[in-house]
């Protein structure tokens, strides 16, 4: 009996009996649903509340009754576990994926935490990869059941400790598809880029005026105003296209913080120039010089999106074209309005003077923040 | 999408709302694993014993998590090999489980527990001669009621009358055994009685077992099968009334509601079970073949599918319920070859069951 020691035959009865009770309950599964649309990722992850407790000790008062309050309080920890346990990348570049909402979902075997997910992937990726490692260190029989919609197809996969990473070739190398994606992103980024818009407006506001006798006077004819607008916009476009291309093709790589500060400074200078112009006939020179800086700013955005292999130049072109189209839309709205209002006193005293002053102040604050002079 | 099979996600109205009753917290595998084999084995045993009661596959999973550093090590310590074999048996990886036990017994031929586990696997698989030899080894190493139970449980499929009488005679000695052993004893007693066609004796064995081990899902499910066989659907509902939301008991419940004509409950349970089997299939898990075959035969009434599943199940498991399920599916599908095949097996192996013998 010496070998039996702490293992009385009793244990055998406990261990070796009903093999068939195997399907007595459902095993631990998490349900992951992801949709990739352009560069945006959306979906949800469902984890059984029993597993949530194992992952983040959600039952804070340890009474073994998990309440909604306890679940809500563990949201940040859960989000961190999800962020480290589920990694999505496109063509080897990481996507972002964050928990945006927490709800509860009743399934047949109990309740699940329902985590809404949202994030972004580099655009027009050809190979999408997902790594899933949630719970595997604690429960190797846990499985992640994935339903993925990407590139116009639905894919299913089961993640286990032995198969924790999967790749899908999306066949997204369609030139048209990626051209449209990048064009859209270009438009999107100039429209949400308030600093670019303010810079452009600050340059355009005086186009319908002339500086005469230490004061702004309205132009009498449309032609010189249009000539001025065309010169400014062309210079800005040319300049930022040059630096955008250089940076996107990895030929020049200026530090991001310097670029951001310089963009803020450019807005300050453009606005101050409206109050007491140092340059006015040749504002296109200002547009060109600072356009170079703004181009590096666009490149930083494009860097986050990534350029698909094999379609780098085409996608860069599409993005740049998108930026120009977005910019043209702003010009087409702003310039006719300015021309119509140019003779009115409000245009010069309020819009141009106070407006430029306000822009200068805001941009000066950005500059201070971005260059680390003030925090936050 | 399966995710929406149960309605939309919701936001509870107040923080105090209880969402889930959680099992007792137990120490799982720490990140990075337990380095000490004896410590890991002890912690894994806690989960295995809990799994026996909870029926929750997560508990087996946590045990495996603790054993992860030794999961594929051929020369793992005895205790680890034994636990690993038990977990593999649970996953129906029978050949791998037996290989682990053989390795252990080559190294430590006097390991009583390993002989008992080996006997159980051989018996479940229908290898009755091998199981009898294992029980004989156990008898020499650790004589006593458990070794006797091992011997009689292995003899009962071929001689439910003689071995059944032997089991009945153990009644007094078994009363002193712990609940899990007592539940095992009554399950073997009930199975032997069913082989003889003595349903009254079978029922009293189930009742006695459940009185001491009400948590035993396998025992409860086997009792429910007996009641369903007798057309006592109302009694099944009563038996399962306060049972947890376990899939195996749901299967018995849906069959009872079918018999009672309660179509709303039937639909609800059928959907949930179909979803469960689909998810298990996606996972690639094997141990659901018996339940799925029963579901296909009695609920979906798809005899061809039921027969295919019952056949696949019979390759792995050859206990009372497995043989009966295979015959019922073969009869429903009108497959004379399958019936003859089962009959040949029964004659060759000497396994007796009056229920089978009355039907071919």
TrEMBL record, chain A:
Keyword Oxidoreductase recorded: no
Name used for this protein in its record: HupE/UreJ family protein
Signal peptide from the UniProt entry: 1-24
Keywords: Membrane, Signal, Transmembrane, Transmembrane helix
Transmembrane regions listed in the UniProt entry: 190-214, 226-249, 255-272, 284-302, 314-338, 350-368
InterPro entries: Put_HupE_UreJ
UniProtKB/TrEMBL annotation, chain B:
Top-level taxon: Bacteria
The protein's name in its UniProt record: Tetratricopeptide repeat protein
